[in-house]
User: Fold this.
Amino acid sequence: MSTATTHDAHHDHPTGLKRWLFTTNHKDIGTLYLWFSFIMLLIGGAMAMLIRAELFEPGLQFFEPQFFNTLTTMHGLIMVFGAIMPGMVGLANWLIPMMIGAPDMALPRMNNWSFWILPFAGMLLISTLFMDGGGPAFGWTFYAPLSTTFAPESTDFFIFSVHMLGFSSIMGAINIIATVLNMRAPGMTLMKMPLFVWTWLITAFLLIAVMPVLAGAVTMMLTDRHFGTSFFEAAGGGDPVLFQHVFWFFGHPEVYIMILPAFGVVSQIIPTFSRKKLFGYSSMVYATASIAFLSFIVWAHHMFTTGMPVAGELYFMYATTLISVPTAVKVFNWTATMWRGSLTFETPMLWAVAFVFLFTIGGFSGLMLGVAPADMQYQDTYFVVAHFHYVLVTGALFAIIAAVYYWLPKWTGHMYDERLGKIHFWWSAISVNVLFFPQHFLGLAGMPRRIPDYSLQFADWNMISSLGGFAFGTAQLLFLYIIIKTIRGGQQATDQVWEGAEGLEWTIPSPAPYHTFETAPEIK
Amino acid sequence: MFAKKLRRALCGLWGAVILLGAGNAFAGFDQLNMTPGVTDISHKVYDLHMLIFKICVVICVGVFAVLIYSIFKHRKSKGAKPASFHESTTVEIIWTTIPFLILVGMAVPATKTLLALEDTRDADMSIKITGYQWKWKYDYLDEDISFFSILKTPQDEIKNEAAKGENYLAEVDNPIVVPINKKIRFLITSNDVIHSWWVPVLGWKQDAVPGFINDAWAEINEPGTYRGKCAELCGKDHGFMPIVLVAKTEEDYKAWVAEQKVAKAAEAESAGKSWTKDELVAKGEQVYKTNCVFCHQANGEGVPGSFPALAGSAIATGPVENHIDIVVHGSKKNPTMAAFGQQLSDVDLAAVITYERNAFGNNTGDMVQPSDIAAVK
Assistant:
């Protein structure tokens, strides 16, 4: 291998558009993923603002019901597949090689391809908004037959877009597994890896297992729509509920795909600002693996009201509530890490601690939803909406934001503006609760989800929720400003950046050089 | 001086908030929790919900108390020095076991409630519920009663052109009427997409799946009018297909059944008679407003790209046979245009087609009689 010489020769890498189009560098690709994620967050967020504007008062103010349904559908799809997942993959690209002492990802060209599929898949999805008959309006869960026989023509573009997103995710996952298993520096045994790498390794296996299932589901939709099959059509011997089984066999692991890397991020940040090692490292690894395993055998808890046999309902109730055990272990371990530490609260720590509090609330409402007889009331109400926004917004999204503040000095070489970061945090943390907490009340009081208009008894809390939503939405523009400001300048960051930071990424200069660990570091 | 000013400003603001709250036209801040409902099962579901909720709150408060204590006491700024402990198998075992035992404890009442909830045996009567885009049909299997139940809230209230009534979006033309103290079995299915029949006071919702029949049951303890909604996204007007359930005493229920039968006989008689055009148009307008207006709109212009216009359309102004065909048998191209032959009486069909051919500027002068419909059905 002539690694050293070839790399030196490559130092005049292309600039401008070509640099980004042809890059095989994990840092460049990580940056691309993160910016893509941010743009999608803003687009999906703008849709959320429109949804909250329509729901501000009873009556139809701005949109026809069909377009409202398109908004909720696209908001969900864009946030899940466009914002959260690529955000996490961006972090993985930037951090995994630096954390395990590898020079790059194992399959750099495929890495380029898995990113560059995304913008096209995203554009294809968004283009459906402008098609005759409107965009997909059947919810991000696209239940048949609403998404097959009764769907607009643009659904075929949606199906193709999901296929492309799936290719991208599977290739990204293969790359991560190959990197983690083959490219660790000497001495970096599996049980010495930073927890973020562990959570991503497990997540990558989840992705490889379930993205093909999603591809199968949309392919069956496609053949039902155009080629005379009846997978989900009772009149032809099929079963609409089969769709839900296939979808949730993908969908439930999918929610852990979005939250496990978040667990990893928080497990990096809390020890740093507690100046104390992560409590129960190995139990954290085992808990992550148990959650991943359990995520495959609980899918039908999304379907308690579909008329499953009672034995099925009992099984899925027991298995589902079981997930709260490893999840609780994680929360206890984070708490024990902070206990008798030496805490400081820089912006990344604020977001991470908020994650622990608010994700716990989302976890508890999840436990309540897992109890089948009570779920007969909760199912398809705003209680569910509140639950999954607590785990996805104050869970996954908060973790991504925490990660950006935590590693931004390493990426850019500049410290962000601490005062603005704190304003961003408090503004978001308060408004997000004003936004989502009242939705628990709305759901319990009987408001179904995915409705553009509601009865008068729901008016007050909807108005409060919308106000919180507008405030939370604007706060993210401040985030954009802070990031741009940090990229353009600011106080020079040290190599270690944070007093309590440990790990290989803090041993290299800030900003991280284009190529790192060309010679593998030695891990004791 | 400044403090005084500030206090006055805050008092003023607070006063404004209170006034705003008192003058608010909408109610709702008191709507915080699930209804205990009006059946034994719904009470059990409510009790179970409160039990899990309380367990969650207790654990939550415990964990948060430790976190908050740590946040305030173990700060570097207060001179806290980091401890060096970072693992303990004993502690890990303890905090894995305790949540597990709590779960087992919760599983017992949950299992009991679920088994009771799903036990639809030995029912006193059965009602079949069919979801349609976007209305409900009720078939009383033990009586010869069958009718559709459609949103009654007028379009101008939805479009903010009129003040909203008390039961905005929670009122229907024909509520489902049931007796109290009888075990009623509901057989729930759908004609098109998946819907979900949900009246919160009964303690459950059940999906209506096309091609399959789900069952559920209720035995209501108190007479009253109870309101619910479709809970599964079923297309454009998912938010506009409410449920109203009226529970009556045994005698009142029997009287209602008798009334329905008389009305049915009268309707059968009217189908035989010959209608004048004015009668048909007047009746047709009513039928149009309940069944057609959501897609084709009050002015017959439809929604471009989604729902075709009737005003000046080839079907509504062309040969009358084609018009009858699409209304009675539905559209082959677009399943959203349902086959109304299964849903409306011959009189209603004749009336609405006559109305459509003479409204929105479609002055064809045509008239369709109930007998014309019966001929193609």
